[in-house]
Amino acid sequence: MIGCLKKHFPLVAILSLIAATFAIYWPSLQNQFVWDDTALVLRDPLIRSWRLIPEGFRHFLFTDATASDFYRPIQRLTYTFDYAVYAFQPWGYHLTNIILHAAAAVALFLCARRLIAKSNKLAPLTGDFLAWLAAFAWTVHPVHSEAVMYIASRADLLAALFGFAGLFFATGADGKNSRVHDWLAALCFLLAMLSKESGVTALIIWLAATLWLFDAATFRRWLLVAVSIITIYCGLRFSAEKIAPPESTPTSFAARPILMARAWAEYAGLLIAPANLHMERSVVNIDQGDPMQTLHDAAMRTFEELIGFALIAAFVFWILWTRRHLPAAYFFLVAFLIAYLPVSNLFSLNATVAEHWLYFGSAFLFIGAALSLHSSPLRGKLLLGILACWVGLLGARTFVRNADWKDQRKFLMTTAMNGGSTPRMIINLGTLESSEGRQKIAIAYYQNALKESPDQPFALLGLAAAYMRAHEYENARATLQRARIIPFVHAEALEKIAALEYQEHGTVRLDLLQKAAHLEPDNWEIQSACIHTLADSGKFPEAIHELEGVLEQQPYRAESWQLLSTLLTKINKPDAATAARDQAIAYDVHLKE
Question: Can you give the residue ranges of every domain in the chain?
Fold first, then answer.
């Protein structure tokens, strides 16, 4: 019986991880696109055709949205696959995320059991069980639900999948197929980095593992491999076309230890009792407008700091204890620290905490905890019962959370109500209300966002658009004049001023549109507005000339070729129009339909 269990346990474990993933995440198949999903799927021209895959490696993410520092071509590549199969049906993209999470869970189990077997003298079945227990808790944990339910967070899934796979192949490189395993591991580590910047931590963890499991010669060999991988990555990243994102004020060095302690406490709460989950999180003190509320929040943050420093001290003690008494758990805890440091507030990022940042690193924490509990004198049926109840509650919480991502309204409202009421979230609520015709509510949201951040450019642009839809032209004009002096959105403000002039007086301000187009030649929305205005004015040759200039810089836009085909038809050039139409079809696999 034991022999049969030992033989078939890995297969049973893998099937249970896959089954658990689909059981708790299948409701997300009914969810829609939310937030950045629209930018990365609905508006990215580089995912529309297989022919554009090389072009996708030459651009950062958010091609037609706010510029970013995210170079993640593998994420874009998976969207290309999804678009070819599902077009713009959200369930297909959610299905891919579920499959990737299941694959990452399986890869985690396989690499964990191999690392445990190499580092511990446990019986094989015991080691496999602990690897499965850690992988199962990681699979169903609701803190990871954002990475799975949010299509735009697919980078976390991919980086983890390739990171775990790289560790799996690398640890199997001591047999007769070691060269093949080495190559597969190196490829996986590179793909992890091309999926998400923090994917480099998988490679660093493996370098640490070579010192722990092998000899100095193996470490030196892998160090050369790591340098080669990073060189290839840097060659791709730094040769890609990038639009600089808006500048942000870096966190002061004096504040970083405080934010690190707060984040540690925040993450500990999320991992142990993940009741209050939401997309936008922050551990920075925010002026709430009400002095008493602001004072209360500041006191709670101070309390969180103290808890954070205490938990950090406890974690250091845990590491020191395992180093002496349980070396295998010690390695996994160090691996967790390696994966966690980039998001610990040691470096200044675009947020202070985020649930999906725990996706990769928490796996090593769970493995270290499983090994530590197994060596604890408290182990027994009672501990197993508590763990079973805890894991069951985690899965139930994850299942329930699917509803939080149902659609844009539910997502935004749930996030705001659960404590993520940041200016960015308030702006998105305003945009939603404005798009659905509730301009007074939208204006109130934008004004609230501007109270917290008076020069927030997107709040100003959104407020101006809401004023225009409400026919409050003077307020719209005054708001756009405020936005116009902000260099980052100067061109967008000019384009909206032109739209305001036309809406209020029927005046076509082609001069403003052309100036905006000149200021931001890569902004397709502005270029399109200028070209359409020229065409609507009967200036077809000028419109074609402008469009051809855009296509010289961005030849990958199917929409641009479609528009060129239409304009060429207008001036009676059918052959050229057909050629442009064929080019559009080549850059969008669904245009034939």
Answer: 2-405, 422-520, 534-593
